[in-house]
Amino acid sequence: MTQSILDIRNVSLSFGPLKALDGVTLAVSPGERLALLGHNGAGKSTLFKAILGFLAPGEGTITVAGHRPGSDAARIAMSYLPEVVSFPQSLTGREVLAYFSGLRGASRSEINGLLDRVGLADAAERRVRTYSKGMRQRLGLAQALIGAPRLLLLDEPTSGLDPVSRHDFYTVIAEAAARGCAVLLSSHGLEEVQGQTDRVAILSRGRLRASGTLAELAAAAALRTTIRVTAKQGHADRLQADLGGRRVNGCRLDIDCAPDAKLGLLLQLGHHRDVLHEIDVFAPGLNDIYRHFSDHEGDQA
Amino acid sequence: MNTRIGTIFAQEFRLARRNLWVGLATGILGLFAVVLGVFGAGQGAALDADALTLTAASLATLSVYLIPLIALLMSYDSFAGEIERGALALTLASPVRRWEIFVGKFAAQSLAVGVAILLAFGAAGAFLALSFGTGSEGIAAWMRLMATAFVLGSVFVGFGLMLSAMAGRTATAAASAVGLWLVLVVIYDLALLGSVMAASDGIFASQVFPWLVVANPADAFRLFNLALIETAPVAGIDGLASTLPFPPTVALAVLGLWLSAVLALGIRRTKRIVP
């Protein structure tokens, strides 16, 4: 395995009695995109602030490209895009990028290329006041790409964006990752990051509940498929006696089964075709997987 | 000046110009200076003083109110607003030092106040001198007024930035800026006047009171300017200017001390910000 750009080991951080982060261990390698999922208040932003060096963990260590968070080397290696950012309204897009170039000690000659990459070349001389939400977020992304950082830290970067803007946004992120940049981005939901990240980590109440590819998470969750059968009037009792399951109402029956038992169950239902009105199959979706990890184990904690 | 301070300075100064602060401050200060000069010029002959000297005295008394207000208005939102909008987190994520941010903002906003003073008082002074005539004494008084007004503005820009970094929220920062202005510019003098009237012995009035007055940066500015204008028609607390138990340069030293104090405190508060 290659050397991680971001290495978080057993990090805990408390605000008084509230444990915002509890034993979090996470690593992101060069070129890897990791999505950090969690509810509001799960600890995502706190973790980001710890990585940025704004908050010091009570326990554990974080290193960014081998450096302590907050050190110059770590700040140069990493850049950040917060969930809500509003640049000064009376500056132009180019002036905003020139400001961050100056702070990062990067060359101003790369600004044109960055504006091009996020599709703002035509709006470069316009005041930020006139930008749409999507344009502002793209300007934020361009800001984060200044100086070719080795780690991109994106806090819910696409919330509130329309699907087209979101797609464009992830295209730029994928390009950065292809050049070897490690990406850690947070999000509320799995659908949003499906297909856009290599790995997913789920944070709930300050603890890391799961981490892996989507397929791995789905397998680990081993969620059951639900088959909903609607019987013809008066035949629901007989179906339940034969197949089991839960009665929903007079004529409906929900049967849960493991994904690999689904086909057998459907074949069995075929024998009752004369009393069947309708069959619906509910395979577990991304949301169910997410809920499984963020709620289920939270209840035990 | 390193690149990072230069970058912050350039952005802040650009913002002060674009947000029309410089233009607005120039307009207000210039208007008051001309009006005071034109109205005061009528009394000049009676008091045997030229228009510029007289106007410098009355403008010093008025500037005590206006310049701190302008400086606080320009600076109170600087940190608090950026914290609320999430912009400061981005700046702090870059390799910039906290003190560099404070110094860059301070220099830019002080300069913005200074440019407004230079344009407004400079133009008004030239207008008055050309219209009513003046001498070397008048020009010197006017120069002292502009220079010390610039220092006074810087002190209050420092105050505003410090309060902004301390408050972290725009509303709190605004409230504390207004409070500071009221205390230092209005209430302080009233309280001192009240106490000097209440105190029966002469020691307080002659020994303690002048030091208490000059300890306030706004009063220090006013005393310094009035003490050096012999013909100034002064009343109330300003009457102290002609009977100071210390040289007027003490007032300048007080302004310098306040400037260093607000810079040091402001930088310390900036280091504690968690965005």
From TrEMBL, chain A:
UniProt cross-references to InterPro entries, sorted A to Z: AAA+_ATPase (IPR003593), ABC_transporter-like_ATP-bd (IPR003439), ABC_transporter-like_CS (IPR017871), ABC_Transporter_VariousFunc (IPR051782), P-loop_NTPase (IPR027417)
In Gene Ontology terms, what is one molecular function of this protein?
ATP binding
- Domain ABC transporter, which positions? 6-230
Q: What's one Pfam family the UniProt record gives for this protein?
A: ABC_tran
What keywords are assigned to this protein? ATP-binding, Nucleotide-binding, Transport
**Which CDD domains does the entry link to?**
ABC_DR_subfamily_A
Question: Which superkingdom is the protein from?
Answer: Bacteria
**What protein does this entry describe?**
ABC transporter ATP-binding protein
- The species this protein belongs to is Aliishimia ponticola
Automatic annotation (TrEMBL), chain B:
Record keywords: Membrane, Transmembrane, Transmembrane helix
Task: Give the matching Pfam families.
Answer: ABC2_membrane_2 (PF12679)
Q: Which residues form a coiled coil?
A: none
- Name listed for the protein in its UniProt record: Nitrous oxidase accessory protein
Taxonomic lineage of this organism? Bacteria, Pseudomonadati, Pseudomonadota, Alphaproteobacteria, Rhodobacterales
Q: Name one GO molecular function term.
A: ABC-type transporter activity
Cellular component per GO, a single term: plasma membrane
- Establish whether keyword Transmembrane is in the entry: yes
Residue intervals passing through the bilayer:
20-39, 51-76, 106-130, 142-166, 178-199, 249-267
